[in-house]
């Protein structure tokens, strides 16, 4: 079974600054998908960014970018120019290509943005 | 377009009771997944249904069951509720069972068992 580890329970960032969230995962598979989801107090999980393991290029979505290190099984999220609306719980998730029916989530990182 | 809708948003049940949670996927989406999120933890996979067939089941007891209807909406049923079943139950939908683009989640049902 794949395990996803987020070692930072909480992170705080000043508005307009940059914060990086860590995620590591354990798998024996060579092809898979990785995701970052944001969960604000409204509870709805919102997809922030996705990465396909066979692509070496790191994914970017506006102010959000990832650093995907396949050999190290690391998938960090960088939030640039942080905004107050970025405050939320962030979850890293893994999905296998072979057993593609489920997401395996980490425990999450709470991001606080200071004005 | 409406997103993934779940009902009810909150409910309180007593130990030993039964509960039914409901989910309507995004129009055109044929796959529905259920996740349990205990406070302070990441979501845990319970079930996935695609075209009314169960495609996958997580490590949950038989007290948990689900089904998908011809209109692709879904119900999650939990029997003989325990205090430990208190959690946020999330529903996610995708066009097919293979959500390469990720899943779209609803806002969840907060279940409290007393």
Put the structure in a nutshell.
The complex is a heterodimer of chains A (115) and B (114). Chain A has 115 residues and is mainly beta. Chain A has no helices and twelve strands.
What does it look like?
Chain A has 115 residues and is mostly beta strands. In chain A, 0% of the residues lie in helices and 52% in strands. The mean pLDDT of chain A is 93. Chain B is mostly beta strands and 114 residues long. Chain B is built from no helices and eleven strands. In chain B, a hairpin with a 6-residue loop joins strand 4 (31-37) and strand 5 (44-50). The radius of gyration of chain B is 13 Å and the shape is globular. Classes of the chains: A mainly beta (115), B mainly beta (114).
Main sheet: strands, sense, barrel of chain A: 6 strands, mixed
Order of helices and strands of chain A: EEEEEEEEEEEE
Strand content of chain B: over 45%
Class inferred from helices and paired strands of chain B: mainly beta
Task: Give the distance, in angstroms, between the N- and C-terminal Cα atoms of chain B.
Answer: 37 Å
Biggest sheet descriptor of chain B: 7 strands, mixed
Features:
heterodimer, A: 115 residues, mainly beta, six-stranded mixed sheet, 12 strands, 52% strand, globular, B: 114 residues, seven-stranded mixed sheet, four-stranded antiparallel sheet, 50% strand
Write the layout of secondary structure elements.
The complex is a heterodimer of chains A (115) and B (114).
Chain A (H helix, E strand, L loop, with lengths): L2 E3 L4 E5 L4 E3 L2 E3 L5 E8 L6 E7 L7 E2 L2 E6 L4 E6 L8 E9 L7 E2 L3 E6 L1
Parallel strand pairs in A: 2-12
Antiparallel strand pairs in A: 1-4, 3-9, 5-6, 5-10, 7-8, 8-9, 10-11, 10-12
Chain B lengths: L4 E3 L2 E4 L5 E6 L6 E7 L6 E7 L2 E5 L6 E5 L5 E5 L8 E8 L9 E2 L3 E5 L1
Parallel strand pairs in B: 2-11
Antiparallel strand pairs in B: 1-3, 3-8, 4-5, 4-9, 5-6, 7-8, 9-10, 9-11
């Amino acid at each position: 079974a794949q395990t996803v580890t987020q070692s930072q329970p909480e992170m705080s960032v000043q508005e307009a600054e940059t914060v990086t969230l860590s995620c590591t995962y354990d798998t024996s598979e060579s092809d898979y998908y990785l995701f970052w989801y944001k969960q604000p107090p409204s509870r709805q999980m919102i997809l922030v960014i996705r990465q396909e393991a066979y692509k070496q290029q790191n994914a970017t979505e506006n102010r959000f970018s990832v650093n995907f290190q396949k050999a190290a099984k690391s998938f960090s999220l960088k939030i640039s120019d942080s905004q107050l609306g970025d405050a939320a719980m962030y979850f890293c998730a893994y999905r296998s290509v072979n057993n593609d029916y489920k997401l395996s989530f980490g425990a999450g990182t709470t991001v606080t943005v200071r004005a | 377009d409406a997103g993934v809708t779940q009902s009810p948003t909150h409910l309180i049940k007593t130990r030993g009771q039964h509960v039914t949670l409901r989910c309507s996927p995004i129009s055109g989406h044929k796959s529905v997944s259920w996740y349990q999120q205990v406070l302070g933890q990441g979501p845990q996979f319970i079930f996935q249904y695609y075209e009314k067939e169960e495609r996958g089941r997580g490590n949950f007891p038989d007290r948990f069951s689900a089904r998908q209807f011809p209109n692709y909406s879904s119900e999650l049923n939990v029997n003989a509720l325990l205090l430990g079943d208190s959690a946020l139950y999330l529903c996610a939908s995708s066009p097919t069972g293979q959500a390469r683009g990720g899943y779209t989640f609803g806002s969840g049902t907060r279940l409290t068992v007393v």
